[in-house]
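Title: Comparing notes on inverse folding

I've been comparing how different people in this forum approach sequence design from structure. To keep things fair, I'm posting one structure and asking everyone to reply with a full sequence. Here's the target:
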């Protein structure tokens, strides 16, 4: 009889392993419990601390009016031009300012600043979670060298797992085709171990957190 090929030998071992199953040596492992220590601080404080650790720039706003004022001051201070957003709500927030905002998709490639909402904020990791279901789409958080996120305290969750569960509950069977996590500005040290900011996305990331749970 012709000797079995290496592939057939491997498949025989796999079949044998599937038939002769071994008992789970650790049947009582807890896969649902939290593995990280729970902080005594509020979620907004934890997020702010972690977000700034990764070079994110954070601003807390008590209401929408304060956000508009702070953002307008930042635009003047930084001398930002070519500010772009696709979301009508953000456009409405800023319509009474003198800030020139572009809203046409054809202007995206020229944008210096991109403004978006987000899905959730993961406090433990200081992470912004966005998805392709948002009106800003896939590109606005990546193309402009400066990304500004507008978020609300009600979007804060303890961890990434909670954010993903929130997205699942929000969209049901129509899960977004893209879910992205943003933890600080884009960076890379792949070339000669030299840290380069903005290697694969924005060089600067700003987050305005607006209180909406009072």
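Reply #1:
Here's my take.
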């Amino acid at each position: 009889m012709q000797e079995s090929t290496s592939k057939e030998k491997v498949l025989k071992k796999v079949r044998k392993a599937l038939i002769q199953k071994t008992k789970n040596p650790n049947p009582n492992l807890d896969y649902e419990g939290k593995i990280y220590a729970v902080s005594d601080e509020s979620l907004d404080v934890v997020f702010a601390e972690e977000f700034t650790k990764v070079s994110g720039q954070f601003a807390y706003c008590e209401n929408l009016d304060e956000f508009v004022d702070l953002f307008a001051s930042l635009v003047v201070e930084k001398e930002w031009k070519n500010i772009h957003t696709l979301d009508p709500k953000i456009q409405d927030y800023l319509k009474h300012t003198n800030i020139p905002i572009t809203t046409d998709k054809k202007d995206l490639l020229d944008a210096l600043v991109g403004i978006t909402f987000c899905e959730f904020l993961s406090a433990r990791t200081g992470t912004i979670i966005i998805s392709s279901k948002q009106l800003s789409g896939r590109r606005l958080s990546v193309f402009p060298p400066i990304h500004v996120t507008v978020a609300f305290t009600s979007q804060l969750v303890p961890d990434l797992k909670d954010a993903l569960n929130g997205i699942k509950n929000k969209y049901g069977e129509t899960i977004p085709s893209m879910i992205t996590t943003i933890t600080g500005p884009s960076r890379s040290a792949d070339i000669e171990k030299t840290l380069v900011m903005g290697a694969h996305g924005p060089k600067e990331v700003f987050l305005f957190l607006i209180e909406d749970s009072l």
